[in-house]
Amino acid sequence: MAKGGWSMPPTEFAMQIEDDTMVLFRELCEQASRGVIYRAPKDTSRFLANMNFSANRPDETFDDLKRDPSRSNTLADARLAMAALKPGDVFYIVNTTPYGKYLEAGRSPKAPAGVFGVTFNDLKEYSGT
Fold first, then answer.
1. Mean of the per-residue pLDDT values for the chain?
2. What is the pTM of this model?
């Protein structure tokens, strides 16, 4: 504690920590979202378009007809989910495309190292954990 007491009330300090934590959390969610979006193969864009982003509950829906060749709708969906995050929330990125497990295993020349695992490793490095 600084000599002479707090420079701000403890409640204000706690709110500042919470705000700073949410900024970092959203930044990490953005990095994770961009990682899977830009690593996803774009040939049919079905896998890419079926990236589901949500708070507190995984969205395991799949739409065989959904496509996003520009990646912009998928990124917008991610940012919409991030905007709803509150302290204590969990951010989910889920993809239930039937052939997704093969993409993650590196069986696509367009994603030879997979999508989610590589993004997770990059996120760990980015965050210093």
1. 93
2. 0.87
